[in-house]
Amino acid sequence: MNLNYFKNFDDKDFFSYLIYLFPLLFLFGAGVVNTAQVLISLYGVYVVFFIKKKLNIKEKKLYLFFIILFIYLFINTLINKNFHSLKNTVVFLHLIFFTEVIIFLLENNRFDIKKLVRFFTLILLIVVLDTYLQYFTGKNILGYEIEPNNKIRLSSFFKNKWVVGAYLSKLFFPIFIIIYITVKKIRLNFIFYVFFILYGSIIFLSGERASFSIFCVNLFLTFILLNIGKIRRIVFISFAVFFTIILLLTFFNTKMQNRYIKETVQNTLSINRDFTNNIFNNQYGAIFLAANIIWKENFYFGGGIDNYTVQSCNKQYDKISKQVSFSSNHYTVICSTHPHNYILELLVNSGIFGLLIFLSFLSCVCYILFRMIAYNFISKAFGIQFLSQFFPFMTHGSIFSSWNSNFIILSFALFFSYFYYNKEVL
Question: Which residue ranges make up each domain of the chain?
């Protein structure tokens, strides 16, 4: 053992390894990963104000969007007296300071993408194998059982939270792309095909339709934006094989047919005695209708963070549920922590004005990805992963929840830090 390594181990190495191990921290629960995120962000504050003593907004113009959104939502939430929700506005500051930590580590040669890929790959591979074990035996290695009602939703190490598909879909693609490109000289194409297909198949088998949608969006964006080496060929062939497999799985598995075909059709084209062919006659449809009603009451500026919960669960439940009942039989379930769609959440919280700011930011990210030079594939890979999470035509968690924000922060920080480090400044 090289003891000199430990003698030279300092705060930079600690935070590097904290980022390398981020996928592992998710498995220990929200409290652990949130603590890590806060520690990294606080270190970013120290780096910016006490070491660098500058933020360099001129070269990091994307930060302006986060600063504007933070100030705007903080004031808006304060005006609407949602005082307990003010803390959630700092997610935009976390995006800045988390990114600054990685840039600082890169500039000091203390952040190694190869180590990050090794840790990510090992952790994700363990989760994939454990999820397959749960699928085939009904229990994972720790004894956590498959979802008890329909016996289809998988959880792996997340116990009774059916989010393993979301976890895998939001971490896999950048690592897959980076591994392929960095070791492409070694003839491992067959291994990549197998790994890709196994990974995509378990996301499908997890029963999480939104996660499977993210996986497909990643495929599409990778094919369009990443013309490096044979990556498009890998994606195309893998998708063809993968698509054939899921067709067979769906054809021979009635549970999959019900989950991905029957339930999806019912949720988008409901046939009901009162609401024939009504796409809103389901749980999510009722929540979308309620969100639309709440947004129209504060059309331009919204009602601040957690406005949906405040209105749909407390202040206006009776009024809103009555209006929803004219279009959906599921009006009793409108009380929720969020509208289950990022666009609707931004409209409810920040109105048209806030949504336009955020869409302008996403447009800048798209512009960067299209204009980015080819060799900066690390940044492109994480940029694609970041962008895919905001695909509007599916259900989402909440931007401001700890679970979703950690994925958003991590993917953006890795995308923008490598973009900036390679001197592709805006």
Answer: 112-268
DSSP lists the bridge partners of residue 278 as 270
Give the Cβ contact number of residue 278 at 10 Å: 16
Q: What is the pLDDT of residue 276?
A: 46
Per DSSP, 256 falls in state H
Give the integer Cα–Cα distance in Å for 213 and 175: 19
CA-closest candidate to residue 204, choices 269, 255, 143, 147: 255
> What own/partner pairs with CB < 8 Å and gap ≥ 24 does 61-67 have?
61/364, 61/426, 62/361, 62/364, 62/365, 62/416, 62/426, 63/96, 65/357, 65/358, 65/360, 65/361, 65/364, 66/92, 66/93, 66/95, 66/96, 66/361, 67/92, 67/96
Structure tokens at 317: 């439940």
pLDDT for the residue numbered 47: 95
Question: 180-191 burial, b for 16+ CB within 10 Å, e for fewer?
Answer: bbeebeeeeeee
Taking only Cα atoms into account, the Rg of the chain, rounded to an integer number of angstroms, comes to: 22
- Dist. CA 98–CA 268, nearest whole Å: 39
Structure tokens at 418: 């490598």
* Contacts (Cβ under 8 Å, ≥6 apart) of 72: 350, 353, 354, 357
Q: Determine the Cα–Cα distance for residues 63 and 56; give it in Å rounded to an integer.
A: 10
Cβ contact 124:172 at 8 Å: yes
- 3-state DSSP call for residue 278? strand
Residue 9: is its pLDDT beyond 60? Answer: no
Both tokens of residue 323? 């209006």
Task: Please report the sign of the dihedral spanned by the C-alpha atoms of residue 225, residue 226, residue 228, residue 231.
Answer: negative
Q: Considering the chain, what is the average pLDDT of its residues?
A: 85
- Alpha-carbon span 384 to 150, nearest angstrom: 33
Q: How confident is the model at residue 90 (pLDDT cuts 50, 70, 90)?
A: very high
CA 359, distance to chain mean position in Å, is 17
This prediction's pTM: 0.89
Is it the case that residue 388 has pLDDT exceeding 70? yes
Question: How far apart (Å, rounded) are the C-alpha atoms in residues 166 and 206?
Answer: 9
Q: Over 70: is that where the pLDDT of 270 sits?
A: no
Only one residue has tokens 């949906």, namely 308
